[in-house]
Amino acid sequence: MDFDVSIIKGGLSMQKFAKGFLVGAATAAHQVEGNNIHSDYWAQEQLPHSSFAEPSGIACDHYNRYEEDIRLLAEAGLNAYRFSIEWARIEPEEGKFDAGEMEHYRRVIACCKAHGVEPVVTLLHFTSPRWLIAKGGWEAESTISYFKRYVTYVMEQLGDALHYVCTINEANMGLQLAAISKRFRLMAEQAARNAAAAGKSAEGTVQVGMNFQKMMENMKYAAAENAGVFGDPQPKIFVSERTPEGDLLVMRAHTAAREAIRAICPHVKVGLTLSLHDLQAQSGGEPFAEAAWNEEFTHYLPYIQGDDFLGVQNYTRTLYGPTGQLPAPEGAELTQMDYEFYPQALEHVLRKVAKDFHGDLIVTENGIATADDTRRAAFIEQALAGVQRCVADGLPVKGYFHWSLMDNFEWQKGFAMNFGLIAVDRTTMARTPKPSLAVLGSYAGE
């Protein structure tokens, strides 16, 4: 059993994880650093008819305040920090690498280690260099070699200081968005007089902040504006509706990156992360749930079985009935993202994944968007109880990273979503740890 002595917390028995189990929080560069001016997202945020609720701007100014943020994480007891390196900073122009930006990330890693925090690095978390998208983006064969070149450069510079690297965040997101976007268009057609409500319903079924309604309204304008910026009216950014060929191209990019990492740093454990729902079939819904799981997970197995670990990212469940996907149950508690509050989903997904993937498992994202931090604390306690049951049953779960370390830029949703363990004042950038941060930290082994 990989946890030790019980302590009493909130009147309930709670067990710490064993020493060495990663208990941490996660961020993504674009969502927290600020001024990511060479990226595709930055460019799209500035368009006159952008689908973004607001631009990222200085985000949480984490680029300048990372030392304070890592210190707060460590002081609360957390022992690991998952963050991403921004490709658009490292290679702002094709073939031109910025040594100064590389030095910045070297300092972030050193800061983690100075505070006894294990750095877990993600090499691509949704955002890409603007120039890459102008050359065909995530549907272009050339992206595989460009990504491998970037990964090689980073690992040559930083690899000696790392033990865990995620190549690509939520490699399956493009197919999920394609399915959701298709469903949204059908819903909008069926409910033309109430399209806003239809959009809200669709957005709550994908684990990323999207404004499908605004995207539909702006489509004819955005096409021309995107063509002006990227040379393509429908640029193939990482978070775009993906073709089956593009889906496998992402897997091939991961495989190429994995080979590069192992050649340069054989000591580093490498994997990717997937966005996974707890797919639950009600009577008659079994074929739909099975097809969804194949699309979300199973068909990737040939590309990831050679990985050292899989990053499991889960926020909620999805229900299926005899006609397909169902809404959340009547009266269910919904988060700010319109996800059902269902922390039990994580345990279910870990157990299901472990049947087919035989490497280590790390929960690289799990969390809740809510302004009520007592619900976040409850979510953490229930989710981690499930993780501990998995560990007790012998599943190779090696860590848990909560999303997110701080309230941040939730992509197209802007700054309205409260996912953080730390509050950030949008005017002063002052940090205020929430009680949930200490709750999570209390689970880390001594």
From TrEMBL:
GO terms for cellular component: cytosol. GO terms for biological process: carbohydrate catabolic process. Keywords: Glycosidase, Hydrolase. InterPro entries: GH, Glyco_hydro_1. GO terms for molecular function: beta-glucosidase activity. It holds the Pfam family Glyco_hydro_1. Belongs to the glycosyl hydrolase 1 family. This is Glycosyl hydrolase, family 1.
